[in-house]
Design goal:
The protein is of the alpha+beta class. 57% of the residues lie in helices and 13% in strands.
């Protein structure tokens, strides 16, 4: 091979590399990718609009939440109760609008991520194919040079110079390959981001269904009160007194039963009390009653039977999102209102956590999880309510040592009642299995 022939091959190699580099530079702005970029920008604008709408609705919900708190603090009369329900209903309806906006934002985000994934996959495929062709061409040129040039060159230094040029270009190709590998890492991250958004979207759809159910329940409750308002205020007060009496009977029977339980609780099976181990069950924290021998419980032993409140109450309007305080599995759910004479927790959820604790969420308006379902800390499991023997909207949170809590039928501790003949069930535990939630929740 002559020196001119070798130079020609080298120039061909250089041209091949230049074409590759130019392709990589031009690839991001091909017609398809330009359209994709435009679509991504449009989607980002729409996502921003939904984000702004969510923020505005959040402000409205906070204002409505304060109005509901104010209504709940007023005297328990039919007129005030109707006003409270009306305000709760407006807040829930605004919450539905917010959830719908979150769903719309999630769908737009998933669409945007899908375009980004498609764009990166196409770039990887095209660039990888072009690089593979270039590397094969360089390898053929280098093999030809090694054989023919050694035979045709008198000056070996010129041969090595030409060969070094080829190797330099090969090194550049390897650098571009590494860049493509980095692009693959980004692609993997986008795919995980897409999966997370899909999970969040499904969660919001579940919440939306629950919120719509709560609106229906609230309307029915409102209709009942309107009917009562046409009769006598005494009728409503009688209903409230009946709820208090039913709560007294339930608490007393449960306390007597739990006092006899002999389960030995090993302190080593659950964590020592420390603030922050658990997360808040609601976003807006307002404690209305603490655990233990609170003054209210002491002053109202006829209500609590034991003179001790077995959990912590959070003052939240109907329809607030209730979150799991820690990772775990849903042990059981129930609705005592579905059984005549079984007024107690109303709709409730019991979760067994991975750290040896269990938590009960009661007086719910809608349950969004099922027994056996895996739950993460902060996952939405229900919507707050006013079911059971509750005389006002709130969330009741009880915390147990998991070793002691179990779910039993009412007939095991409430003999002889109409409720005992039903399938109603409730969590029970020996008295020393009850823990103060505030000792595990974040500090106020």
């Amino acid at each position: 091979m002559t020196k001119n022939q070798l130079n020609l091959k080298t120039r061909l190699a250089v041209s091949c590399i230049v074409i590759t580099v130019l392709f990589l530079c031009i690839a991001p702005i091909t017609q398809h990718q330009l359209q994709a970029a435009t679509s991504i920008e449009e989607l980002e604008d729409k996502i921003g609009e939904q984000r702004d709408r969510i923020a505005e609705l959040d402000k409205q919900i906070e204002e409505q939440r304060q109005q509901v708190h104010q209504s709940a603090a007023e005297a328990q009369t039919i007129e005030n109760k109707i006003a409270e329900i009306q305000r709760s209903k407006r807040k829930i309806e605004t919450g539905i609008q917010q959830t719908e906006a979150e769903i719309a934002k999630g769908e737009l985000t998933i669409e945007k991520i899908g375009l980004e994934i498609s764009d990166k996959e196409q770039r990887i495929n095209k660039n990888t194919e072009t690089l593979a062709n270039t590397i094969r061409t360089l390898n053929r040129l280098e093999e030809s040079s090694l054989i023919e040039t050694v035979l045709g060159y008198d000056n070996m230094s010129e041969f090595w110079n030409q060969l070094d040029i080829l190797r330099t270009f090969q090194s550049e190709v390897r650098n571009i390959v590494r860049e493509l590998q980095g692009l693959q890492v980004v692609l993997t991250g986008k795919q995980k981001e897409e999966a997370d958004e899909i999970a969040a979207l499904e969660s919001n759809k579940k919440v939306l269904g629950g919120e719509r159910d709560v609106v229906d329940q609230t309307k029915k409750q409102q209709d009942v009160l309107y009917t009562l308002a046409k009769t006598k205020e005494q009728t409503y007060q009688s209903i409230l007194n009946d709820k208090i009496r039913e709560r007294e009977e339930f608490e007393s029977a449960l306390y007597d039963f739990e006092s006899q339980l002999q389960t030995l609780i090993d302190p080593a099976t659950f964590p020592n009390a420390q603030n922050g181990i658990l997360g808040w069950p609601v976003a807006n924290v307002r404690i209305t009653q603490n655990f233990g021998g609170t003054q209210f419980a002491k002053n109202n032993p006829h209500i609590y039977g034991r003179g001790v409140h077995n959990g912590t109450d959070f003052g939240v309007p109907v329809g607030e999102r209730v979150m799991s305080v820690f990772d775990g599995i849903v042990t059981a759910t129930g609705n005592t209102d579905a059984y005549p004479g079984c007024v107690s927790w109303g709709k409730w959820v019991l979760i067994k956590h991975t750290n040896g604790l269990s938590s009960l969420y009661a007086h719910l308006s809608s349950i969004l999880v099922s027994p056996g379902e895996q739950i993460g800390k902060g996952d939405v499991i229900a919507l707050s309510g006013n079911t059971g023997y509750s005389t006002g909207p709130h969330l009741h949170l009880t915390l147990y040592a998991s070793q002691g809590v179990e779910v039993v039928k009412f007939n095991e501790f409430k003999k002889g009642s109409g409720c005992a003949a039903t399938g109603a069930a409730t969590p029970v535990a020996p008295l020393d299995a009850y823990l103060d939630p505030m000792e595990y929740l974040p500090s106020l």
